[in-house]
Amino acid sequence: MKRWSAMLVSLGLLAAACSSGGGGSAGSGVTPAQCTAGGLTVASGSVSPGPSGEAPVTLNIWSFYTGREFKQYCSVLQDFHAKYPWISIQHTGAKTDQDIVRAVNSGTAPDMMISAGPDNVAKFCSSGAYKDLNQYLKADGIDLSTIVPEPASRYTSYNGVQCTLPVLSDAYGLYYNTAMFKKAGITEPPKTLSQLETDAKKLTVFNPDGSIKVAGWMPLQGFYESTALYNGNWTGGKWYDDAGKSAFASDPSWAALLQWQKDFITNVYGTDGYTKLEQFFAKLGGPNSEWSTAQGFETGQLAMALDGEWRNAFISDDKADIKYATAPFPVADGQPDLYGSGQIGGDVIGIPSNAKNADAAWLLLKYLALDTQAEVKLATILKNVPTTFESLKDPTLNSDPHFKVFMQIFGNPHSSFKQITPIGDTDSNLWGSFVGKWEAGQVPDLNAGLQGLATQIDQQSQLG
Amino acid sequence: MGTVNLELSPARRKARRRRARRRYLTVLLFMSPWIIGFLWLYVYPMFASLYFSFTKYDGLLGSPRWTGLTNYRFMFTHDPLFWQSLRNTIWIVIVGVPLTILLGVGTAYVLTKPRRGRSFYRLAFFVPTMVPAVAASIAFLFLLNPSGPIDTALRFFHIPRPLWFQDPQWSKPGLVLLGLWGVGSTMIIFLAALLNVPSHLYEAADIEGANAWQKFRHITLPMISPVIFFSAVIGVIYGFQYFTEAYVIAQGAGGGTGPGSGSSLGYPLGSTLFYTIWLYQQGFESFHLGYASAMAWVLFVIVMACTLVLIKSSNRWVYYQGGFR
User: Fold this and answer.
1) Which of A8, A331, B129, B222 lies in disulfide reach of A234, CB 3.0 to 4.6 Å?
2) Using one digit for the tens of pLDDT, what is the confidence trace for A99-140?
3) Does one domain contain both A385 and A436?
4) Contacting residues of B for A353, CB less than 8 Å apart
5) Residue A433 and residue B268: Cβ atoms within 8 Å?
6) Cα separation of A405 and A174, whole Å?
């Protein structure tokens, strides 16, 4: 008896030792068919079979959403459940791409994953971690090119494998303070980078000690969303050449962009402009101020800003006391045809290759990504740009002139997200680090530096 | 004279062996949770990572592909960020560990002096160590923010105000400050060691006419040298694995949040890119698990070598009362 007791205790300890410390899902323990902070859960037993005898199924979906947005997403999932009553949904938020990699690898993947951006799409498509959705599109007779703008199809697929679809996107454009423009005698927003520099010079105000009081435009790559400019959309920069090699050295637009930035800093802010801009950024409160009422454009300390469509909602929520308008961001002087476009990219949804309920997951994915009503509802509640041609025409969303600009930017065929590759955001990180050093004057030879960067990115692509 | 037969009969020998085996198995059974955990969660992953370090492996559906020494060769010859991260890490070890020990000894020494409120002061110095690293890092982001309270105080006294975590020259010193704020755990060990120094040694020194410095140098320091040694070894090991604070600070202080903006790890200008941060970036953001495994093994070798050097050098400067080493 003693031995049995010892064995039971031992097994109990063993079980405790071997159990994982994973936390419970964000969606567990909620009232059936209700949207709560925990998400939407419908007990499988409470639903009936589908019209063609489909067995009731509970989809386990993951997303990066948290807090208010997680809760808001729920109402769209409820709409889906109303349309497909035999499909229940268990939604778990706060999941990252790292989580999905672990889950796919260990065979515990959910039925669907909503990622925050396209950075890892190429990895998921090329490795087979996500299903190729072309088979579903073909079976349902869907021609994606008639529903989703081509640039969005590009950042959701890799080498012909459409392993994700876009659902909502960000679009980047110019915010400008109309009162300051009027005071400076500027009648329209700049359309080229040269005009941006001229206007920024007129709009910049210095304190008596030479520090910046109002910045015309902030060119530092680490400043708020100014980083988007250095992804090359507005200057026609290619990240990779046709052979798949890094193009930072071979495409002259990159060196031109960085040289323009250096000249901009000197011409607008003086030879010690970099230091002044760093101090100005620090005074604003650093990067964290971007998500608070201290955000420079909202406080009137920035005359122009490169930002995403969500800034409209922030300005409204923060009750910022500014008069402003939006426009496409200026483009390189030699690339007038790019005007009207911008950087885009947002949520992507895929079905892991070892999903247990892939067919039902496709119905949900199709609903979220391709259904006009669902797209418009998501765009309305989450304040992002919808991603289908039809939803981009929605009269309510287009009724706000500030927001309309970003809808048009998303629909512009020249809009883009940087070329994606299986190395994820490694190239972005290396490029960002290089631009930071360049701004700080730590790159003595620009062309040699870009060559070294390109080599480094190519080597990372080969790495295991 | 009769003799006693000490030999056991075969049946009793067998029974004793059976009892011994049963005892052995019982012990093993009770130890099994740890043994299984150790083999499964430590030994297996260690050797798996050693194998992965010689492969190209993305952690997804494909199997690891053997590439020999490629990862190691790339690390030493083609990865400038490996060297940058190693330099940053060595900086934090060389500056942070001695400062932590110095402040730990100094604080503990001061705390042995007050006759009143001793418990309060000890508690006050120890409490910061109970704050989670993430919370402490966020608090320091706020404190050292260019428009934060420290900046305001410095401005009031017309003292130059660094940009701390926004300035590559000041980001690492800022992290060291954060580390020193949590010196309580080191301090408490030194306090115990100081209180353990026999008072008769000081009395003898007083009779000999030794001054305070001589007593500290020739009595206190030798007597607490084993604790200094312990703190140095632990400090070096943790220093090479420095991660949480740097990760939180860089993410908090760095800009760029949207898709395509990359991560802020190492911000600003790679000054907080420590070894484990780069390893994390490679393994879990770039999915280069083979390369990350190789980096982990190189780190293991570095830490092992530093620990051995410290142990070897301890013969010369660590004094053990009982003469044991």
Assistant:
1) A331
2) 999 899 889 999 999 999 999 999 999 999 999 999 999 999
3) no
4) 61
5) no
6) 9
How far, in Å, are A118, A170, A368, A409 from residue A344 at the CA level? 10, 5, 19, 8
Q: What angle do CA A350, A356, A360 make, to 5 degrees?
A: 65
Residue with tokens 């087979």: A128
Mean per-residue pLDDT for B158-172? 89
Look at residue A227 in the predicted model and tell me its pLDDT. Answer: 92
What span, in angstroms and rounded, lies between the C-alpha atoms of A217 and B295?
41
Place of tokens 């067995």: A55
Q: Chain A closest CA to B55's CA: distance in Å?
A: 7
Q: What is the ipTM for the molecules in this complex?
A: 0.78
Question: What digits encode the pLDDT tens for the residues B220-232?
Answer: 999 999 999 999 9
Q: Which residues of B touch A128 (CB under 8 A)?
A: 60-62
Q: Between these two residues, B200 and B251, which has the higher pLDDT value? A: B200
- Does residue A274 share a domain with residue A211? yes
Asked whether residue A206 falls in the same domain as residue A233, the answer is: yes
CATH code of residue A192: 3.40.190.10
Alpha carbon distance A204, A401 (integer Å) = 26
Rounded distance between C-alpha atoms, residue A220 and residue B300, angstroms: 38
E-assigned strand segments in chain B: 55-56, 65-66
Q: What parts of chain A have a pLDDT lower than 50? A: 1-32, 43-44
- The whole-angstrom separation of Cα A386 and Cα A204 is 35
Query: Measured between alpha carbons, how far is B105 from B189 in angstroms, rounded to an integer?
Result: 9
Bond before B268 cis per omega within 30 degrees: yes
Q: What angle do CA A328, B252, A170 make, to 5 degrees?
A: 25
Work out the burial of residue A224: count CB atoms within 10 Å of its CB; fewer than 13 is exposed, 13-18 middle, 19 or more buried.
buried
- How many CB atoms are located within 10 Å of the residue B30 CB? 15
The boundaries of the domain holding residue A209 are 171-343+423-462
The residue behind tokens 């790019």 is A338
What whole-number distance in Å separates Cα of residue A92 and Cα of residue A458? 36
Do A247 and A365 belong together in one domain? no
Whether residue A185 sits in one domain with residue A158 = no
pLDDT at position B257 is 52
Looking at the complex, report in whole angstroms how far the Cα of residue A91 sits from the nearest Cα belonging to chain B: 23
Interface of A with B in 254-313 (CB under 8 A): 278-279, 281-288, 290, 308
Residue B288 and residue A460: Cβ atoms within 8 Å?
Answer: yes
Pair A141, A193 in one domain: no
Report how far residue A225's alpha carbon sits from residue A304's, in angstroms, rounded to the nearest whole number: 12
Q: Report the amino acid identity of residue B272.
A: T
